[in-house]
Design goal:
0% strand; Glycerol uptake facilitator protein; globular; mainly alpha
């Protein structure tokens, strides 16, 4: 239960700070990219040891394909992440209502768009391909850096910087989703308040795209194996063989010395005993 709560809190923080900076800076490229990246770094160091700090259904999907989490965990991870994104968006709306920035239905919540709702007019296919590529790069980095425990200290920094990288490219294209929960929550709340279902009809691109990109990343990680399994086995066998050879040499040397020493002692004793007997017999006869 603790890991699901951690995923809920982590996604809430990511959406609040990432989308919040996008709203209050009018989607400034550097500020928004750093906000998403630094949010991951901050959250990963706190909940990473408990849940792994996925805070993203696409990452959880890749982890499930890579058999690092069970199907049960995958379901509850996605549920917790989606609820966390909704709560994070609600907190952002609460903060916006305390300012003169305007209504969130007109200002937005950092939602992802394409076609007529996007300022650059990117097509549906362009948005889908963009999200697949960006998510592939991000999730591939996550899978690679979390494969070995020795990388635990630097993994949050690598993941945060990679998320910053993909946002630098994607913000001016689709707003950079790479996270279905982060895209679904703003689209749902804006659609419910404005009765405009345009964002909800477009959100499937930002769910399917990241999931497809994550699946490609998981499949690609199968062909990248950094662990040198055969080398480790050779290193373990070498010291055992050397010890056996040294022991046999020492045993042979001890046997050879023990066999030579008694022969020398028997010869010296026999010579000393025979000589005094012969001298005594000659004196007595005289």
């Amino acid at each position: 239960m603790k890991k699901y709560l951690c995923e809920f809190l982590g996604t809430c923080v990511l959406v609040l700070f990432g989308c919040g900076v996008a709203v209050f800076t009018e989607a400034d490229l550097v500020a928004t990219s750093l906000a998403f990246g630094l949010s991951i770094v901050a959250v990963a160091y706190t909940i990473g040891k408990v849940s792994g700090c996925h805070v993203n259904p696409a990452v959880s999907f890749a982890m499930w394909i890579d058999k690092r989490i069970s199907g049960k965990d995958f379901f509850f991870y996605v549920l917790a992440q989606t609820l966390g994104a909704i709560v994070g968006s609600l907190l952002l709306i609460l903060i916006m209502n305390c300012t003169a920035i305007g209504d969130f239905t007109t200002v937005g919540l950092g939602q992802n768009t394409f076609a007529s709702t996007a300022s650059n007019g990117i097509t549906m296919l362009g948005a889908l391909v963009t999200e697949i590529i960006l998510t592939f790069v991000f999730v591939f980095a996550v899978l690679g850096v979390t494969k070995e425990k020795k990388n635990d200290a630097v993994a949050p920094i690598v993941i945060g910087l990679t998320l910053t990288l993909v946002h630098i490219l994607g913000i001016k294209l689709t707003g950079t989703s790479v996270n279905p929960a982060r895209s679904f929550a703003p689209a749902l709340l804006i659609g419910l308040k404005s009765n405009d279902l345009t964002l909800l009809t477009q959100v499937w691109v930002f769910i399917v795209g990241p999931l497809v990109g994550a699946a490609f990343a998981a499949l690609a990680s199968f062909f990248v194996d950094v662990e040198p399994e055969p080398k480790k086995e050779v290193k373990k066998e070498e010291p055992k063989k050397e010890v056996k050879k040294e022991e046999t040499v020492v045993v042979k040397a001890e046997k050879s010395t023990s066999e030579k020493t008694p022969k020398k002692t028997t010869k010296t004793t026999t010579k000393k005993t025979t000589k005094p007997k012969t001298t005594k017999t000659k004196k007595e006869t005289k």
